[in-house]
Amino acid sequence: MTRRLIAVRMILLGVCATAMPGLARDALAETYYVRKSGSDSANGLTPATAWASITKAATSMIAGDTVYVGAGTYQTEVVPASSGTSTNPIRYIADTTGQNTGDAGAVTISTWGSSHGFELKNRDYVEISGFSLRISGQFAILISSSIGCKIVGCDASGSSKPGFDIVGSEVEIDGCVVKNLGAAGIEIGPKGAIQSKVTIRNVSITGVSAECVKIKSDSTVVIEDSTFYNYPTIGVMVGGRAQATVSRCTFYGGSTGVQASGDSVAVDNCLFYNMGGEALKVPNGSGAKHQATFINCTVSSVSRGVFNDAGTCYVINSIFNNCGGGGIVGSGKATYDYHNLFNNNQPSGKITESVGRVTGDPKFKSWNDFHTQDGSPARDSGTQVDALITLDKLKRPANGAFDIGCYEYGATSSEAQPRVFRWTQVAPQ
User: Which helix (H) or strand (E) holds 16?
Assistant: First the structure.
């Protein structure tokens, strides 16, 4: 579409909005198609008249438009020329099924040198869905100074830089796979005084050479229902003055699970096993409040369960099994031990308060199935908390009393919309 036609569309939109205030913008939205067999001299409006390049789509689309991209490898950096709106986002959709373009298969974006896969700077409400990103020297997706953007069902690998770099932006990341990078999996930070606000759901990160998720500072991040494995350093790093909630996540084959160097970190209903470091580490440092909660988690075969060297840390309803350096090691200002189960790893150091401690074999179903069996001392031994959704997304309590650990014995009812809890909601008063 030419710039003249874009201008005509914008004028028509303004006229229609004035004459008919109830007319939706979607009535003027366009759907475009990109195929390897296409031509950028075509109009892009049908599979038969598809464009050949995603760049053509990126320079033509305006708010409300969607482009379906057919199978193949596109050696290009995608830089959208326009923003969407909250009600009319711009959508880039990899048509892997071929339902829309007729070309089924992986839709791959490949770049090298200084080019990103997608670059969104000051571009709001852009959605990127289903792409495979094979980027050699830069970020698979860079989003800076933008709001309302979404990354859905994409996979990124091969770069020496982080897979997704979020700078001073509001972004949702859902159903993505990040692997085999020479840097962090996802990196998040502010842009000057502008904080990032990011939600990460259903992601899998492995084979990265640095942190799976690195929250550098001054950001608010929610991480849910994700898996981090076979990484050398830290699963989730929360930097100075940042806030993070980590819910229903699994960590294994790495070093430290969550490092809480920020203002507040809440970890609930997570599983940590076969790790060389701590499940939760609260290191000493400056510029942060260091408030951490660790609720209804299961920890097995790690170096130390929880290591608190600063601030205030509440450990509640959690299982610590075979932690060689101790289940809870308290060296900081205040470490609270409420209704936790310990097996072969008693707490040590500065424990401000210990209530309802349980000892003994948690009786897991197997070496890699951490549900508890009949007779487990974890059953009905916990205390009431607000983190009510288990790792397998079932509601607790199941039998009138709260279990210890990330699972609830006998739980059968599901929760469609798990809550996200703030520090004030999870810290005992």
Answer: helix 3-19
